[in-house]
Amino acid sequence: MSHFLTSPLGAPTVMPEKECAARYDVPMPSDESTVSPTDVETHNGDRAPGAYALGRAIIAPLARMIYRPRLEGRENVPLTGPVILASNHLSFIDSIVIPVAAPRPVQFLAKAAYFEGTGFRGWLSRTFFTSIGANPVRRGAGQAALDALEQQRQLLEDGRAIALYPEGTRSLDGRLYKGRTGVAFLALQTGALVVPVGIIGTDKVLPKGAKVPRLTPRVTVRFGEPLDLSSHGSAESGRARRLATDEIMAAIHALSEQELAGEYNEVPAQTPIEKIKRALPHERR
Question: Which contiguous run of DSSP H or E holds residue 196?
Fold first, then answer.
């Protein structure tokens, strides 16, 4: 994931939605995917509030004991400072696996519906997602995308770690799709390091449509060496965003060892106009 647009460093400004959509890649989380954290106002650096701290203390050791994940390269994740964990995306549980595997608190966005239920089930869902570092966000384009990106930017400027999926949504065929440029935009704008992540096996643990995770498959999580993308240029440059995104995706590919799809992961165009739009050069939102 990812999913936003933002204001420049320093005093925030509001960019017109149409200009935003045209210039930057701002996909929102898919129905079942997630990408970054709890209320910006309630966090102090990487010190998580009650439910999140308790969740990390209970869920992480329990998940490691049950699933015995293979964790590689955890030393590559900086323990302080702004970091973007950019991962491939195979299953809904990727957004649980990454916080469990990472050596520091990781925050991500989840669709607001997970936090809005009523009764016991609503409380359970809300408590669970809060405990793993999720923060509610409205799906959609325009202002919703701008607000989500602004949340991400603020978290990075506060020195936190966030998790995003450059592909924008889950791969249903196991291939690695082209990256959208929103992650690179955030990294170039904030100066955050990007740690590529390759996840293997989560699609076997919880395939699309499954309600209960399987216990037998083992998951592998590989953290690559941090990428400093500043050499590509300014976040305002479309060429810089594209080159930085390609570098991120090449690193993810080396870790995940997936077959490359060579295209964006998106629903096929339904109308002739949409087909023409996609054929023209532009950044995927």
Answer: strand 193-200
In this prediction, residue 147 has a pLDDT band, given cuts at 50, 70 and 90, of confident
Structure tokens at 221: 């999580």
The verdict on pTM exceeding 0.90 is: no
Distance CA 253, CA 88 (A): 8
The 10s digit of each residue's pLDDT in 203-242 is: 999 998 888 888 888 999 999 999 999 999 999 999 999 9
In which element (H, E) is residue 161 found?
A: strand 161-164
140 touches 28 (CB < 8 A): yes
Q: Please count the other Cβ atoms lying within 10 Å of the Cβ belonging to residue 272.
A: 8
pLDDT at 168: 87
Between CA 264 and CA 178 the distance in angstroms is 5
C-alpha to C-alpha distance for 58 and 123, rounded to whole angstroms = 18
In CATH, what is the architecture of 17-262? 3-Layer(aba) Sandwich (3.40)
